[in-house]
Write a structure and sequence with these properties.
Blueprint lengths: L1 E4 L2 E4 L10 H5 L2 E9 L2 E2 L2 H15 L9 H11 L6 E9 L18 E8 L5 H5 L1 E7 L14 H12 L4 E6 L2 E5 L3 E6 L2 E4 L10 H12 L4 E2 L3 E2 L8 E6 L3 E8 L2 E2 L7 H17 L3
Parallel strand pairs: 7-8, 7-15, 11-12
Antiparallel strand pairs: 1-2, 1-6, 3-4, 3-5, 5-6, 8-9, 9-13, 10-11, 10-14, 14-15, 15-16
Helix pairs in contact: 6-7
The structure holds 4'-deoxy-4'-aminopyridoxal-5'-phosphate.
């Protein structure tokens, strides 16, 4: 298995980063994940634009930025993944200067650039049957719109979900659901589909954006307004949107079943529409 690290394609076991790396020391680092549908990089432009926006916000410059899609394609080809469903992971850190100092290193410090492509690891049974979620307080910072590798709050929340035999944890901030630990959240309440608006409180999910486009095409009204956590038990259906699962039905929130414990109708319509959208891109 070859990965890309700092200008070279090399076996994963030989890919090493320095103990001085600012991604390791400070979490001074961004990441991105693109899904590959048999060699097609899904919404690559939108994912790379989000990464570009993050680099700009962190004031990081990456010489090979324009080659990232090509590097991803090369990894798919050399690792014999062109016929597989995959995820391509990109991570960029502010390099490995010495000594350790909080402020930015010298301008000429090269960033660390890592790219790896792997088979998609997602249980498709979840798409059919739906998943349980729990709610947890949103203790994260106010720049959740940046896809940084500072994921400790997300890790702890997701572990709590795992221990409760749930798939995902929904963050609740000031009484409103923001998003999941690694997904965006949609719910139908009082007959209207809701999702949190784009703001520093959520990651602007690429899947979320595709779902909104599909809603528009299907003439499904969506309100980009946050849902109060107190409305969750009354939701008639709910789902998560995320790169690895597209549209993932939610059938239980904490101890309360949603849509009688089965994927809801709107959710299933969007799942089908998503499938068609991908199929059309793959030009069957
Ligand atoms: N929110 C968070 C916190 C995430 O980590 C993710 C997945 N990266 C998402 C939302 C969904 O984003 P996307 O649809 O781009 O995968």
């Amino acid at each position: 298995m070859l990965v890309y690290l700092n200008g070279k394609f090399l076996p994963r076991e030989q890919a090493m980063i320095s103990v001085n790396d600012r991604g390791f020391l400070f979490g001074d680092s961004l990441y991105e994940v693109i899904r590959g549908y048999r060699g097609l990089l899904f919404e690559a432009q939108a994912h790379l634009q989000r990464l570009q926006n993050g680099l700009h916000a962190l004031r990081l410059r990456v010489a090979e930025f324009d080659r990232l899609a090509e590097i991803a394609q090369h990894l798919l080809a050399t690792n014999d993944l062109l016929q597989e469903d995959t995820t391509i992971y990109f991570q960029i850190t502010r390099g490995a200067p010495f000594p350790r100092k909080h402020a930015f290193p010298a301008e000429d410090t090269p960033p660390t650039v890592y790219v790896t492509a792997n088979k998609l690891a997602f249980n498709p049974a979840y798409l059919e049957h739906g998943v349980a979620v729990i709610t947890v307080p949103d203790v994260r910072w106010n720049r959740c719109d940046l896809k940084t590798t500072n994921l400790l709050a997300n890790v702890l929340a997701n572990q709590q979900a795992h221990e409760a035999e749930a798939y995902e944890a929904l963050f609740v901030r000031e009484g409103f659901v923001t998003e999941g630990s690694h997904s965006n959240f949609f719910a139908v309440a009082n007959g209207t589909l809701h999702t949190h608006p784009i703001s520093p409180a959520i990651l602007p999910g690429i899947t979320r954006q595709v779902v909104l486009k599909l809603c528009h095409e299907l003439q499904l009204h969506v309100e980009e307004t946050p849902l109060a956590a107190t409305q969750l038990p009354e939701a008639s259906e709910a789902f998560l949107s995320l790169t690895s699962a597209e549209v993932l039905p939610v059938i239980k929130v904490d101890d309360k079943k949603i849509s009688e414990g089965k994927p809801g109708e709107i959710t299933q319509r969007l799942q089908r529409a998503f499938g068609e959208y991908v199929k059309a891109l793959r030009k069957y």
